[in-house]
Specification:
Blueprint: H1 2-14, H2 18-28, E1 30-32, E2 54-57, E3 60-65, E4 72-74, E5 87-89, E6 94-97, E7 111-113, E8 118-121, E9 135-137, E10 142-145, E11 159-161, E12 166-169, H3 175-178, E13 184-186, E14 191-192, E15 210-211
Parallel strand pairs: 3-5, 4-6, 5-7, 6-8, 7-9, 8-10, 9-11, 10-12, 11-13, 12-14, 13-15
Antiparallel strand pairs: 1-4, 2-3
């Protein structure tokens, strides 16, 4: 009987596909889920496409969206193995720790929204791999250090919000020359220093307010 139970257990676990396993490592990184947002994330499913907060296209995960659910935990590196991932929205939770470098292996990412958490550390250089990134919102966290020079490789960025962090140093050379698709820019409430780059005048698509206050 014991052997049969083991065999059945193995078969059950083995039925979940690779993307399901990657997301299950995300579930295991969550220490507190007071609203039960991940309750239907089960090993017994063939894929994660029916899981709360997950959107698939042709059975591949394209979106992870679980905002404002009081999730407490860290971001695992396995998220980067979701190669068709386009959108991540984990805003207004209680995530802590740093951004894993491996996250940026999901190079088709178009939107990364993590504002309103307790994330810290620097933004990895690997962010420059995200050639399709249009929306980057890391505001209201505890990120620090200088912005990576690779950020200017994200030439499709339309919205960049890094406000209310502890970033230091100057803006990368070529900021205004390369990020010409920017429509929204908010760098307020940080510790940036140096001059406002002269090439900021190239950001002709900016709309509304450019916030460099505080």
């Amino acid at each position: 009987l014991f052997i049969l139970v083991l065999c059945n257990s193995h078969a059950l676990v083995g039925s979940l596909n690779d993307e399901g396993f990657a997301l299950f490592s995300f579930k295991q990184s969550i220490k507190e889920d007071p609203e039960g947002s991940l309750n239907n994330w089960n090993y017994s499913d063939e894929n994660p496409c029916s899981w709360n907060g997950i959107t698939c296209k042709e059975q591949r995960v394209v979106s992870v969206s679980i905002p404002a659910k009081k999730l407490y935990g860290f971001l695992p590196s396995a998220l980067g193995s979701l190669y068709e991932l386009r959108h991540v929205n984990l805003r207004s939770n209680k995530f802590f720790g740093s951004l894993p470098n491996e996250l940026f292996q999901a190079q088709g990412l178009q939107s990364l929204v993590l504002y309103g958490n307790s994330l810290s550390g620097s933004v990895p250089y690997e962010v420059g791999k995200l050639k399709y990134l249009q929306n980057l919102d890391l505001s209201q966290n505890f990120f620090n250090g200088s912005l990576p020079t690779s950020l200017i490789q994200c030439k499709r960025l339309k919205a960049l919000d890094l406000s209310q962090n502890n970033f230091t140093g100057s803006l990368p050379d070529g900021f205004g020359t390369n990020l010409i698709s920017l429509e929204k820019l908010d760098l307020s409430f940080n510790k940036f220093s140096g001059l406002i780059p002269g090439d900021m005048g190239n950001l002709s698509n900016l709309q509304g307010t450019v916030d460099l206050s505080h």
